[in-house]
Every structure is written in structure tokens, then in C-alpha cells.
Amino acid sequence: MAVARQYLSSDLQEWGVCETVIDDAVLVVSELLSNALRHAHPLPSGQIKVSWQCTDGHVEVAVSDGGSATEPRAGRAALSSLGGRGLGIVEYLTDNWGVRHDGDVTTVWALVATPDPVGGGRASLPEPALREYI
């Protein structure tokens, strides 16, 4: 997970995203990856895919896996619980999040708002970065 966070942070810095948005996006990816590793099956390749891109006014992050027996949803953990807060954190830090299904692949995505234009006004942004992890 640390490698995914490093790549994401580095790409977003290079694209001119402000530091607070980078911090939020990194935390969101960390929560989504933790949930995928804890609750889901890997993709048929044995991996979990992490991707991100800058869109108009947002950083979109996504984690794809082989799905699980239950649909990802934000819960309300008891104060004494050691877990169960991940998607609640994602919900708090993002403008929107959701789940896409494509055959055996489940993707949980989230949109982190960027208050400033990404790329410092450059005409075009690089292609979406895509990293894959086991």
C-alpha cells in the first residue's frame, strides 16, 4: 500500500494538485485498498488494481478487485470498534463515491474535489496513471 500512496502523491504533485487534496486522495486510496485486501477477492490475475486521474475539478481514485459476498457500503461503527470506519472516512473526504461492476471485477471509486485548476492552467494533463498490486 505504501508504494501506491507514494506513486499517487508523486503524480498529483507533478500535476500541480494542492497538498491538502493530495493528503485526502492518499488517505482515500489507503482506505479503499485496505477494504479490498480485507474483504474482497483478488482479480483473476491475483492482483488488485489501483488507478487515478485528474478530471475537471476532481481527482478520481479507484480500486478494482475480484469482488466479495457483500456490496461495499459505509457503516456506522461503534465507538469501541477497532474497524468499520473506512468507507465513512471516504464518504467524509470525497464529493462522491460509488461501486461499479464489470463482470467479475468490482471497482470502488471516489472523487476528491480540487479547489484550484489542476496542472496550474496547463492545456492538457497526462493520461491517467495506473498501478497494479498483488
TrEMBL record:
Listed Gene3D superfamilies: Histidine kinase-like ATPase, C-terminal domain
The UniProt record lists the keyword Lipid biosynthesis: no
Domain of life where this protein originates: Bacteria
Keyword NADP: no
Ranges of residues in domain Histidine kinase/HSP90-like ATPase: 2-109
Alphabetized SUPFAM superfamilies for the sequence: ATPase domain of HSP90 chaperone/DNA topoisomerase II/histidine kinase (SSF55874)
Swiss-Prot/TrEMBL keywords: Kinase, Serine/threonine-protein kinase, Transferase
Protein name as it appears in the record: Histidine kinase/HSP90-like ATPase domain-containing protein
Organism, as annotated: Planomonospora alba
Lineage: Bacteria, Bacillati, Actinomycetota, Actinomycetes, Streptosporangiales
